[in-house]
Amino acid sequence: MKRAVIAGASGLVGGYLLRELLSSPDYGDVVAVGRRPLGVEHAKLTKVVADFSDLRAVADRLRGDDAFCCLGTTIRKAGTPEKFCEVDHRAVLAFAWVARQGGARRFLLISALGADAGARLFYQRVKGETEAAVQVMGFPTTWIFRPSLLLGPRTEFRMGERVSGVIMRAIGPLLPRSWRRYRAVEAERVARAMRRCAQETGDGHGVRIVESDEIARLGA
């Protein structure tokens, strides 16, 4: 059986994904790395608390076959663009580098709809720059997931997302086929799609980008 390593298991998608990995017969061990203790107990689970600016200190504990990255925040929550980059760019790359050095063959990353290193909007540009950096790290297979608005219960209240979620649930079924990737997607579906993609056999698939409508289909 394989060993999975996940970063960001305390987040919305990460929480669902952790449960997917722990219940999957494909994985005999699951390692969750985060900045704070994770309040989950399971026979398969190993928890690692670490500073993402110095993951090399725990590199030996982060060896695995498949690495799942669910790290992410918002500029509002981070407080400043610089702190946003610490999480959505530098921490992601630090985790990817340690995972690759630890033998991971697959890297599965949650990005965002519209991610583009040349984008005008700061959020999409940082996401795009992160994608580009991960793609050259040498993983035989890199999966990049670009969900639209994420739906699901969060630990913190976000008024903007709550309102947007209500609107998108209402108009989503009415959007034309060409706009399907803009439909909001359940976080649980994103997690399930990531786990299912990791089940593909073989290596050498290169970079696979999965847009939001395909995520919803894969995670159904």
Structural commentary:
The chain is an alpha/beta fold and 220 residues long. Helices cover 38% and strands 20% of the residues. The chain is built from seven helices and nine strands, in the order E-H-E-E-E-H-H-E-H-E-E-H-E-H-E-H. A seven-stranded parallel beta sheet has the order 3-2-1-4-5-6-9, sandwiched between helices. The chain has a two-stranded parallel sheet with strand order 7-8.
What distinguishing features does this structure have?
20% strand; seven-stranded parallel β-sheet; 220 residues; alpha/beta; two-stranded parallel sheet; 7 helices
- Distance, first to last CA: 25 Å
- DSSP strand count: 9
Characterize the main sheet: 7 strands, parallel
Number of helices: 7
What is the CA-based Rg, rounded?
Answer: 16 Å
Coarse structural class: alpha/beta
**Mean pLDDT across all amino acids:** 88
Across the major sheet, the strand order is 3-2-1-4-5-6-9
Question: What percentage of amino acids are in beta strands?
Answer: 15-25%
Using the alpha-carbon principal axes, give the shape: globular
Low-pLDDT residue intervals, each spanning 5 or more residues:
157-170
Element pattern in H and E: EHEEEHHEHEEHEHEH
Q: Helicity level, as a percent range?
A: 25-40%
